[in-house]
Amino acid sequence: MKKHSAPTSKFSKLTLFLILFGLAPFVTKADVHTVTFHVHSTNGEQSTEQGSITARLNDWVGELISSGDKVENNATVRFEANPAKGYRVSSWYRNGSVITNIIISDIYILENITEDVEITVEFEEFTHSVTFNVINGIGGRLIAEVDGVEIQSGARVGNNKNVRLTAIADPGFHVKTWHDGALWRFSTDTVFQIWNLFSNRTIRVEFEGLPHEITVEGGALGDNKTTDTITAGTVVTIIADEPEEGMRLANWDFSTAVTFMENTDETFSTAKFIMPSEDVFVKAVFELVPIPIPSHTVTFNSLGGSDIAGQTVEYGETAEKPANPTRTGFVFEDWYTDTNYTVMWNFATCIVTSDTTLFAKWTFDETTNIVETHEPASLQAFPNPFINEIHIADAVDFSLQVLTQTGAIAHTQQVANPHEIVNLQRLPAGVYILRLEKNGEIRTARIIKQ
Q1: Are 183 and 112 found together in one domain?
Q2: How many domains does the chain contain in total?
């Protein structure tokens, strides 16, 4: 183990002469200063693995001093950093503060020392970035190794290290050339070697494929050919023929999987893809342009019953049967296409081909309307049966309706006189319902026309 001597004072010859001959009455503590120096450490332990530091008095060939030695006031000390292989100086510190006015990174000269000083040098690993990739990303892959260990593109590699890059071609491809930064390295070797790395490097490899045949049906290549021999990895453009009227391109059908380029896919009439490492047959598949299916409205007229929401139905489809409407004094039978109730609508089989209105058919509810809802004298309708006219007494301001047995309104009239005459000559003979209503009061009676 190296022995360290006790710190000593380093004085100039003039100072020693003055002391020896009594010309300097005394030398005070302020005339000497302690100089310590070492490699910066983050864990409190000093290490020389990254480098070392030395110091000399006054000039480049001056006397070496040790850390902890004392020097005279206003002395000059030259500090020199000695980085280990793969390292370089990152910072100098004086009494814990970063020194910024360094001219030569490995050298720091401290002049006119007037106080105790501590000088620290910090080293960092000297590395360079190594970036690598495959041009166009097709034809194979590229791996890189340092000392037998694989690295990723963009990794930092130590100074003077050797980097080995290996190109691994896909089936049907081989190395075409290497690019070293902006330089072309016209080599088809599968290995590219970087010796003694000293700067950032970007290495790219370009693969090229063997030629294969392509045939296009229902379209053509970009140069209007329908067949050609194209090198694998080349960008191929195909253009579909103009479709016949009423037709459109459905998709391109390929005999093998391909990689599309420039935001296109198998549905584009002009598509671009990478030629694979095998023969390709591609066919344009056309289909009929779909005809928009019109929609129609189905309206439900409940003829005095509760409201039923209409429906929008596509052409050729069936409407959905709604819940039955309700109507006081009547029973709902079914929906018909006309008010004469000649055609009943079958929701399971009838299809909608146009806007359609369906009408509710009602049957008079004998259980509620055959018994009149008033005292016998309250509704006076006579004669009953009648031939053409019926007389209504004591019903001023009532709304009058004459309904058929199915609930259809056959006649309406506002009663204006104490003795109102209702002319029903136009109605055919039969049984009818006479209905009077005012302010929520309802009077009904069954009348017969002869």
Answers
A1: no
A2: 5
Q: CATH code at 412?
A: 2.60.40.3080
Q: Are residues 356 and 252 in the same domain?
A: no
Among 253, 288, 323, the domain boundary falls at: 288
Chain segment 270-288, per-residue pLDDT in tens: 999 988 888 999 999 999 9
Range of the domain at 388: 372-449
Task: Please state the three-class secondary structure of the chain as a single string.
Answer: CCCCCCCCEECCHHHHHHHHCCCCCCCCHHHEEEEEEEECCCCCCCCCCCEEEEEEECCCCCCEECCCEEEECCEEEEEEEEECCCEEEEEEEECCEECCCCCCCCEEEEEEECCCEEEEEEEEECEEEEEEEEHHHCCEEEEEEECCEEECCCEEEECCCCEEEEEEECCCEEEEEEEECCEEECCCCCEEEECCCCCCEEEEEEEEECEEEEEEECEEECCCCCEEEEECCCEEEEEECCCCCCEEEEEEEECCCCEECCCCCCCCCEEEEECCCCCEEEEEEEEECCCCCCEEEEEEECCCCCCCCCEEEECCCECCCCCCCCCCCEEEEEEECCCCCCCECCCCCCECCCCEEEEEEEEECHHHHCCCCCCCCCCEEECCCECCEEEEECCCCCEEEEECCCCCEEEEEECCCCEEEEECCCCCCEEEEEEEEECCEEEEEEEEEC
pTM of the model: 0.40
Chain segment 145-183, per-residue pLDDT in tens:
999 999 999 999 988 899 999 999 988 888 999 999 877
